[in-house]
């Protein structure tokens, strides 16, 4: 898994946490009757709903890209099986040599 993929997953997880925390804040301040608090909750609720929709869209796009990448990788491996085996063997050999170095 690439570092970029891990970073994107972490970002998605962090955004989900922020959304959950904001929802908790909205529920916790529901009894506050001040006009400012009501306005802030309303704005936050609208923005949270928008963020949830965009997050789901981004997750869908990311899943599609991963699926396309997997299909392309499969196609390349099927089109060039011996070259793929050679590259995999070479990488494995290199990793083995690097691990055994002291």
Explain this structure.
The protein is mainly alpha-helical. It has one domain. The protein is built from 3 helices and no strands. It has helices at residues 3-28, 35-79, 81-100. Helix 2 crosses helix 3. The longest helix is centred in the middle third of the chain and has 45 residues, at 35-79. It is elongated, with a radius of gyration of 23 Å.
The overall average pLDDT, rounded, is 82
Which regions contain 5 or more consecutive residues with pLDDT less than 50?
Answer: none
Q: Please write the string of helix (H) and strand (E) elements.
A: HHH
Distance between termini?
Answer: 26 Å
What are the key terms here?
102 residues, 3 helices, mainly alpha
In brief, what are we looking at here?
Helix content is 89%, strand content 0%. The protein is mainly α. Helix 1 packs antiparallel against helix 2 and helix 2 (35-79) crosses helix 3.
Give the SSE map:
Blueprint: H1 3-28, H2 35-79, H3 81-100
């Amino acid at each position: 898994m690439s570092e970029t993929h891990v970073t994107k997953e972490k970002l998605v997880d962090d955004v989900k946490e922020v959304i959950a925390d904001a929802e908790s804040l909205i529920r916790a301040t529901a009894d506050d009757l001040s006009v400012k608090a009501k306005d802030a909750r309303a704005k936050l609720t609208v923005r949270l709903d928008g963020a949830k929709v965009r997050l789901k869209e981004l997750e869908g796009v990311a899943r599609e890209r991963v699926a396309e990448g997997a299909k392309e990788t499969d196609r390349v491996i099927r089109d060039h099986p011996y070259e793929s085996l050679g590259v995999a063997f070479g990488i494995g050999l290199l990793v083995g040599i690097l691990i055994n170095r002291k």
